[in-house]
Design a protein that fits this description.
single chain, about 1550 residues, mainly alpha, two-stranded antiparallel ribbon, 77 helices
């Protein structure tokens, strides 16, 4: 008896209506559901073997427990001693592999699985592969070493042979091969070295692939590298060869060839820079210096450009530190300056010159970086003098000459130059008198530009000039001028000019004329920063301080202004922290009286997302005087809360410093807990703790949360409103950024100049702040820590939650009236989980503000979310209402949500009324909840299991579970299935009753029509691929799982959706073909870009077209399934209109489909279903060419057997349908009769002119084909069609009929068609087909042949005697059932004598002879002898015909006819008889003897004449049977 667990394991869900909902599956059903998974083990895949073991050994031990087959046990015993460690496996690898190969045989099939697992282990065993690779390439290196004497003679050949290995995609293979081959290059003669190096360069230039570049650079690096981090003695020759012009010239012959060679040389030299010391690298740089010097003298600009690229790559910031002697490098720069740069006073057309100048400037920057890192001020001073002529050129690189014409480029260069030196480059130590005069022009231009802008701004402020929008480039240029201005210290730079600019911009911002305020505020910050750099003394003027503080208060959200003011205050003479300084003279703005005001103004800055704003604000606040007298109750130690916050923000966040920051946070928390922080500082502390959330380091968030929770709980009145306000602000920021995310993704940014890019980075500096979604989640988490304190504040909390859900709290009329664009994405879901956790902790929801609306949102919107965690949290929230219909079923509902208990719950709980597991009064409330909980598991396979096969089965189980519901409880299920396909904003009126309310759901025709009107082509193509496929697969499973009672009321809605999706696919495909649109145009014209897809993925490809075709096939498959299962369902006319409109193009291509497809299409399956339904068959003549096209498939030579079988079934359905209706319905006749000739022609082509690829239908025709012929014969009235029909059937008689019933049917069909033939009678063909049958078939079939011959005799009177004689030969006894009438038969045989054959023709005679042959094989002696005498009579007749000369009036028989019958009829049947019993053999041997004696003119019988004798003892034919019998008995006795 099966246990309960075993019973559950074999039960299936909801297969039948009524009480028998659970049935045991058959064995075949259980086998079909087996899930074969190659990943059998539940343990994770180990990255390392067990300690002291190997993967192979671990695998052996594991499978020893799982497999006890004899072959495997023997393999285990042989291998275990050899696989203890990896070195042991490598040692015995050949033996192990040979043993594994020998075990791959079918006789040991029970051991195949573990054996194949070991092959898989070998395939994934990187250590083994790596070790083997090392051994292989080590051997290769030895080959190179010991055969170098011969290999160095032709290095090019060796390189050609090894090209595939040298450029193998695996990096370690390239390295091993490069190391091995480099030995040849190092030891080859100079001529071979040159040829080999050129060969490598040509390989890269021809195919500049990444693998080739890396392989070539590795080879060159190994060739130059020696031992112990030194260069090889051959390195200098190879280096000079690599930098030679002839080597780079190889790439000139190929596209991108030169650049590829530069990359190869650069990569090789950079590897040298990484591993070699400064002394060793000196040789490399000297080679480059010498070559550059020579090329500069020769004037080859292209080669010089290549060499400079290589040099720059070796003196970049990472390698410049290894240059210990800058003098040679500076000499090279001097040569370039004199030979190349200075002569370019007149612009030239060659682009090489501009490239050389550009690279020359890059080289200068690299040298400046190196000198700056080395802190070599003296060399910097000399360089500034030597390089001064560079800026005096009269071409595009001359700063003085281009300041007017190319102002943006000059300012950018000047800005970069100043930033690189990080000093006042124009101070006396860097400029002589001449330089001052040259640079004075630049200074004058900068000063004039700032003055010009001040004038323009003042005109706008005073109304003298109308406001206008400035271009970004102009503002960037202004910023560059302001940033460069402070470096003019010794050139009478005027700091007050910058303050005048600040005042002008301040007044401009005051008029609020629509300018970009943030940008202008940034310019104020830049001006203040430049002013700080220009101040040469430490004298602080009160008006300056007042102005700075006024600006900070006015523009407290500008990070640039705050940072500049903080720098200004830090540069003052007093200490940043004022506690220990009693004699400091503070500015009035910094007095204690102003401190409280500043705390109120700047407190909110401490929670700003911009770290620079938070840090600058804290720096400013820490300069204020602290008046301790105001806080006598507070201890001195905890007054440093601002300094603590400053330390937190100022500390670079890392793993090493996080502990320090956490301790600082804990100090603040302890101060809050002990009430040691003054009340005036609490808002600042509150915002400062929130500001910690914006530091993107998760280890700080939990301590900050705890600190904030303590602050809120202890100072609730102070903190609550601020927290809610900031929470609302963060929520608004998140939702607004969420709405604009799609636009920002698609917005294309135009290319900007370098100066504009730098300006944008200054205005909006890149920051690594915590995302707004995370901050919002953290704030909600902080509320979760004080749930009891906030329960009474639902009037503030609930509106925030509803706003997050997309509702306008002032206009939330229904659950469905939300903004769909604001509620999407992974981040939104994560925040939603935090909101739900908070609501779950608030235990009294019935008293909430808008509590009922909140409950409806939870129940109708969130309970059907795809995320199980969200579902569980929503259910917990709903349970807080403690509804009577919900609380008793809490465990069941949670089990349905949980993936662990989900399967068990499906089998142990039931929704049916018969189970009585749900109270009747609870069903109307509980069933919708269960439906919403389970709908995600129906819509998405991913929510069920990781493997697709398992997920599909689980979805079917869920559908089976839901099918236990009553029919009137299912509308919500189907509404929720359609929900993802509809735009709620479009169908809100219709959807409200389905999705967002608790009213009773119904699914009448009006609702279906209201929903389907939104399934337009535009809406369909706007859906994602996942939604389309997911919906269709769910419909397919519903049709397969639900019974007719449950699914039929919703069939119109479901199939209406499917047919509209079919129409959308067809319109897209047809539009692309008919209009000649490119795939890209077509894709974009229908708006098919997936949301969130990148630009590269938005290009329509052939794959997408294939997806549309597959989607169309799936729609047709579902329609076919429904038509088969519910053939009596009456679909509306609009359904069929849409269907035939959608498939018209497919119908036109039916014949082509038959020629190219292996399986029948889904559309053909649809028409096959229609052909068998009396309701649907009339639809087949809606398209005029539909039926003829289907019939025409029979004429396609390459049509597959499956498609032909489908077409034949289509024909059979039509004929059966007409036969069942007794020809009363005219629909079938309207289809068949006009296309009868096409059908007959197709069948004639199929069975008459068949080929080898589809002959199974012809060679082994079944009952279907014969039924078609039988039913079709009634429609044939034309003799020519009847003739074709007979041509089809006759081959079946001779080759295709294997059983008597089918043979009788075929004969009966031919008999019925004979009267129609008339003068077209095919007597000869029919007799040829019938004669062989008479030899082998039984009495019943022979009687049918008699009927056929009688019918033929009716049209051909010459056949009457033969037909009469054949019937007499098959006479049955009237006295005995099934017995023969021997008297009649013998009497008939007596008529068959020698003279009889003179009266009949050859074909007629063959009929009689065939019957005689049949009787000669009979066990009845009378029949056997009668047949023998008849054949003997024919032999005598044949002898007479052959002996006499041909008479003119005897045209029926001739020698040729006799010879043909003897050879092809008698001899063949005689041979068949030799395989039968002895009695039959004896009769035929006797006949053969008579033929030998009487047919002397038959040449094939002459050789047997000698075997005949009058003496019976000597006659061969008389004794052959006896000899066989004697031999047989002798064998038995032995």
């Amino acid at each position: 008896m099966a246990t309960a667990a075993e019973a559950l394991a074999v039960k299936s869900l909801n297969k039948y209506p009524g009480g028998r909902r659970f049935v045991f599956r058959t064995f075949s059903q259980r086998v079909e559901e087996l899930d074969i998974d190659v990943f059998r083990s539940l343990d994770p895949l180990k990255t390392e073997p067990s300690e002291g073991s190997s993967f192979f050994r671990d695998c052996l031990v594991e499978w020893r427990e799982l497999n006890t087959a004899e072959d495997f046990i023997s393999f285990y015993e042989e291998m275990m001693p050899l696989v203890q460690t990896l070195p042991q496996i490598i040692l015995h690898k050949e033996l192990i592999l040979s043993k594994l190969l020998s075990r791959l045989q079918m006789k040991g099939r029970l051991s195949l699985e573990p054996i194949l697992r070991y092959w898989r282990w070998i395939g994934r065993s990187d250590p083994l592969v790596h070790v083997l690779a090392i051994m292989i390439f080590t051997s290769w290196s030895y080959i190179m070493m010991y055969l170098q004497k011969y290999l160095v003679r032709d290095v090019v050949h060796v390189l050609r042979v090894t090209v595939k290995l040298r450029y193998y995609p695996k990096h370690y293979v390239q390295e091993f091969m490069a190391e091995a081959v480099s030995f040849l290059l190092r030891n080859a003669p100079i001529e071979q070295l040159i040829k080999g190096t050129r060969k490598v360069m040509v390989e890269v230039a021809k195919k500049p692939l990444v693998v080739r570049k890396s392989g070539a650079s590795a080879l060159l690096w190994y060739a130059m590298r020696g031992t112990s981090s030194k260069l090889h003695s051959r390195a200098e020759q190879l280096l000079r060869l690599l930098v030679d012009n002839s080597m780079f010239g190889i790439g000139d012959k190929f596209a991108q060839g030169s650049q590829s060679l530069v990359e190869v040389v650069t990569a090789a030299l950079q590897r040298l820079c990484e591993v070699l010391g400064p002394m060793e690298l000196n040789l490399m740089w000297n080679c480059l210096y010498e070559e550059i010097t020579d090329v500069a003298s020769n004037g080859c600009s292209l080669h010089l450009s290549h060499l400079l690229s290589v040099l720059i790559s070796t003196v970049q910031i990472d390698y410049i530190r290894k240059v210990y002697d800058y003098q040679p490098l500076l000499q090279v720069v001097g040569v370039l300056l004199q030979k190349i740069i200075l002569p370019l006073r007149v612009p030239k057309a060659e682009t090489q010159h501009s490239e050389v100048v550009d690279k020359f400037l890059q080289l200068m920057l690299c040298i400046l970086d190196g000198l700056h890192l080395a802190d070599n001020v003296s060399v910097l001073a000399n360089v500034s003098v030597q390089w001064a002529p560079v800026f005096e050129l009269r071409n595009s690189s001359a700063l003085n000459d281009c300041i007017e014409t190319s102002e943006e480029e000059v300012i950018l260069l000047l800005l970069i130059f100043c930033e690189r030196l990080q000093v006042q480059v124009l101070s006396p130590s860097f400029l002589d008198e001449t330089s001052k005069e040259e640079v004075l022009r630049i200074y004058s231009h900068l000063q004039d530009a700032i003055g010009y802008w001040i004038g323009i701004i003042n005109q706008i402020v005073h109304g003298d000039s109308p406001p206008f929008q400035l271009q970004e480039a102009k503002l960037a240029l202004l910023w560059g001028i302001i940033s460069c201005y402070p470096y003019m210290t010794d050139l009478q730079a005027n700091p007050s000019l910058l303050l005048d600019f600040v005042d002008a911009v301040d007044q401009l911002l005051a008029i609020e004329s629509g300018f970009h305020k943030h940008i202008w505020q940034s310019l104020i910050g830049a001006a203040l920063g430049s002013y700080n750099k220009l101040r040469s003394d430490n004298i602080i003027r009160n008006e300056e301080v007042s102005k700075f503080f006024l600006l900070t208060r006015k523009y407290r959200s500008s990070s640039q202004i705050l940072s500049a003011v903080a720098d200004f205050l830090d540069s003052m003479d007093w200490s940043t922290f004022q506690e220990g300084i009693s004699n400091a003279v503070l500015h009035p703005e910094l007095k204690a009286e102003k401190a409280m005001e500043a705390l109120g103004i700047f407190a909110e800055n401490l929670c700003h997302s911009d770290k620079l704003i938070r840090l600058s604000t804290l720096r400013i606040l820490c300069h204020y005087e602290l008046n301790y007298d105001h806080f006598p109750e507070v201890e001195l130690g905890e007054k440093k809360v601002l300094q603590l916050l400053l330390s937190i923000e100022d500390t670079p966040i890392s793993v090493t410093t996080s502990r320090k920051v956490i301790l600082l946070i804990s100090r603040i928390q302890m101060g809050l807990s002990a009430a040691r922080i003054a009340e005036a500082y609490l808002p600042s502390v509150f915002y400062g703790v929130i500001g910690i959330f914006h530091n993107r380091f998760s280890s700080l968030w939990d301590p900050a949360l705890e600190c904030l929770a303590v602050l809120v709980s202890k100072y609730f009145e102070m903190a609550w409103d601020r927290l809610v306000q900031y929470l609302e602000q963060c929520e608004c920021n998140f939702l607004s950024s969420h709405d604009q995310s799609d636009e920002s993704k698609t917005a294309s940014s135009s290319k900007s100049s370098d100066l504009v890019v730098r300006f944008n980075m200054f205005v909006s500096p890149a920051s690594d702040n915590t995302p707004s979604a995370t901050v919002l989640s953290l704030l909600i988490e902080s509320l979760q820590k004080v749930p009891t304190s906030i329960e009474s504040r639902s009037r503030q909390i609930v509106p925030l939650f509803l706003k997050f859900m997309g509702y306008d709290i002032n206009n939330a009329v229904s659950v469905g009236s939300f903004n769909t664009q604001a509620v999407k994405g992974k981040e939104w879901k994560n925040i939603l989980k935090e909101w739900l956790t908070l609501l779950k902790l608030m235990r009294n929801p019935k008293s909430f503000y808008r509590g009922q609306f909140l409950k409806e949102v939870l129940q109708y919107r969130l309970l059907d979310e795809d995320d199980a965690e969200i579902q569980m949290k929503v259910l917990d929230c709903l349970l807080n209402w403690k509804d009577d219909f919900l609380v008793p079923y809490e465990l069941h509902l949670k089990n349905l949500i949980s993936s662990k208990s989900f399967r068990e719950e499906l089998t142990t709980w039931s929704l049916s009324k018969e189970s009585n597991l749900i109270e009747e009064s609870h069903r109307s409330y509980l069933v919708p909840l269960v439906t919403r909980i389970l709908i995600p598991k129906v819509r998405k396979l991913k929510t069920l299991a990781s493997r697709k096969h398992t997920s599909v089965n689980l979805r079917k189980a869920v559908l089976g579970f839901l099918a236990q519901l009553e029919v009137d409880e299912l509308p919500l299920l189907f509404a929720l299935l359609i929900k993802p396909l509809l735009s709620i904003s479009e169908g809100v009126d219709v959807m409200n009753n389905w999705f967002w309310s608790s009213s009773a759901w119904s699914m009448d025709e009006s609702y279906s029509f209201s929903v389907l009107k939104y399934f337009t082509t535009d809406n369909m193509v706007a859906l994602s691929w996942k939604k389309r496929y997911g919906f269709l697969y769910v419909i397919e499973d519903i049709i397969g799982v639900f019974d007719e009672l449950h699914v039929k009321p919703y069939l119109d809605l479901l199939m209406g959706c499917v047919v509209r999706m079919l129409g959308s696919c067809t319109s897209i495909i047809d539009s692309g073909k008919s209009n000649g649109l490119s795939l890209v145009d077509m894709y974009s014209s229908f708006g098919l870009h997936e949301k969130g897809a990148s630009a590269e993925n938005q290009i329509m490809t052939s794959t997408a077209m294939k997806q549309f075709k597959e989607l169309r096939s799936l729609c047709l498959k579902i329609i076919s399934l429904v038509l088969n299962k519910y053939e009596d369902h009456d679909f509306a006319c609009d359904f069929w209109d849409l269907f035939f409109t959608s498939v018209k193009s497919l119908i036109d291509g039916f014949k082509q489909e038959g020629a190219s497809s292996e399986k029948p299409s889904s559309l053909l399956s649809c028409f096959l279903s229609m052909s068998g339904s009396y309701k649907l068959v009339s639809l087949l003549y809606r398209e005029e060419n539909l039926v003829p096209d289907i019939f025409s498939i029979l004429t396609v030579p390459t049509a597959s057997e499956a498609i032909l079988s489908c077409v034949l079934t289509f024909v059979e359905n039509l004929l059966n349908l007409d036969n069942e209706l007794d020809h009363e319905d005219d629909a079938v006749n309207r289809i068949l009769l006009p296309n009868l000739d096409a059908l007959i022609g197709g069948l004639h082509c199929l069975f008459k002119f068949s080929n080898a690829t589809r002959r199974k239908l012809v060679k082994c025709p079944g009952g279907r084909e014969l039924r078609i012929f039988k039913l079709l014969s009634k429609y044939i009235k034309d003799p020519s069609a009847a003739r074709k029909f007979v041509d089809i059937l006759l081959p079946l008689l001779t080759t295709g009929i294997q059983n008597s019933d089918a043979c009788i049917e075929a004969l009966h069909v031919i008999q019925q068609i004979i009267p129609v033939l008339g003068s077209e009678s095919c007597t000869t063909e029919i007799l040829n087909a019938v004669s062989p049958l008479l030899i082998s078939v039984g009495l019943v079939v022979r009687m049918s042949i008699c009927d056929l011959l009688d019918a033929l005799a009716g049209t051909d009177t010459s056949l009457i005697p033969v037909a009469k004689l054949v019937r007499e030969l098959n006479s049955t006894s009237a006295m005995e059932m099934g017995g023969l009438d021997y008297d009649t038969i013998i009497s008939a045989y007596e008529k068959i004598n020698k003279d009889f054959f003179y009266t009949v023709g050859e074909k007629h005679a063959l009929v009689i002879l065939s019957h005689a042959v049949h009787d000669m094989s009979s066990e009845d002696l009378i029949l056997r002898q009668s047949g023998y005498r008849s054949l003997l009579s024919f032999v005598e007749f044949s002898g007479e015909i052959l002996d006499r000369e041909l008479v003119s009036d005897d045209q029926c028989w001739s020698e040729v006819c006799i010879q043909r019958i003897i050879n092809k009829f008698l001899f063949r049947n005689m041979g068949d008889a030799m395989r039968k019993g002895a009695s039959v053999q004896k009769v035929w041997i006797d006949l053969l003897r008579e033929m030998v004696l009487k047919l002397a003119k038959v040449s094939s019988l002459k050789s047997f004449r000698a075997l005949c004798s009058d003496d019976a003892e000597q006659d061969f034919f008389n004794n052959i049977i006896h000899l066989q019998e004697i031999g047989f008995y002798s064998v038995l006795e032995y």
